[in-house]
Amino acid sequence: MKTRLLSALFLLSLMVACEAPDSGRVLESFSGAAIQRAHDLQQVTLGKSVYHQYCAQCHGENGEGDPEWRKRDADGLFRPPPLNGTGHAWHHSKDWLKQMVLNGSEPGKGRMPAWRGKLSEKEVDAVVEWFQSRWPDQVYAAWYENQQRNRGMP
User: Fold this and answer.
1) CB-CB contact of 108 with 131 (8 Å)
2) What is the pLDDT of residue 99?
3) Across the strands, what pairs with 26?
4) Residue 87's closest CA among 114, 62, 109?
5) How far apart are CA 109 and CA 111, in angstroms?
6) What is the DSSP letter of 115?
7) Containing H/E element for 57?
8) CATH class of 2-149
9) What is the tens place of the pLDDT at every residue in 32-60?
10) Where in the chain are the domains?
11) Low-confidence residues of the chain: pLDDT under 70
């Protein structure tokens, strides 16, 4: 019985480790600065759940977006972009990404609905944290450096 319990706990810890974001590691940025990649596991877990319930139908199960995301559709609107680090989301601050989720696309640009009043700010923060946790290290480092350069700018 004890062996089975220990085996089950070991397997559970492996599953949690596989789901855990790349957090706590120190990365070297493009400028040579050391940055710590930090993601809150509780936020990432909540974000994954919220993302799959509300966002995956447009942005894909793994944040891959529409393959034609750079092209406008027949109505002249942009398709859902990837959020997994292969698109342009890394060019934007967390606050900008959060506002996009809360307010939706600008008229005439895309079909992103406004989630304000449907999702809490905590849920929106968690979704952003989840998809950022999936970005490759190079993308995360580029995002981080971009944020540092633009700190204090409107």
Assistant:
1) no
2) 97
3) 36
4) 62
5) 7
6) -
7) helix 56-59
8) mainly alpha
9) 778 888 899 999 999 999 999 999 999 99
10) 2-149
11) 1-24, 29-30, 152-154
CA–CA separation, 75 and 26 (whole Å): 44
Radius of gyration of the chain (CA): 18
* Coil vs helix vs strand at 36: strand
Q: Please tell me the distance from the alpha carbon of residue 146 to that of residue 154, in angstroms, as a whole number.
A: 14
124: left (phi over 0), alpha (psi -120 to 50) or beta: alpha
In this structure, are residues 94 and 101 in contact, taking their beta carbons and an 8 Å threshold? no
Residue 23 is predicted with a pLDDT of 59
Q: What is the chain's length?
A: 154
Determine the pLDDT at residue 26.
75
Instruction: Tell the residue number behind the tokens 């397997």, with chain if given.
Output: 11
Collect all residues with Cβ–Cβ distance below 8 Å to 152 and sequence separation of at least 6. Answer: none
The pLDDT, as a whole number, for residue 11 is: 35
Q: What is the pLDDT of residue 20?
A: 45
Residue with tokens 């004890």: 2
Q: Are 60 and 73 in contact (CB under 8 A)?
A: no
End-to-end Cα separation, the chain, in angstroms: 61
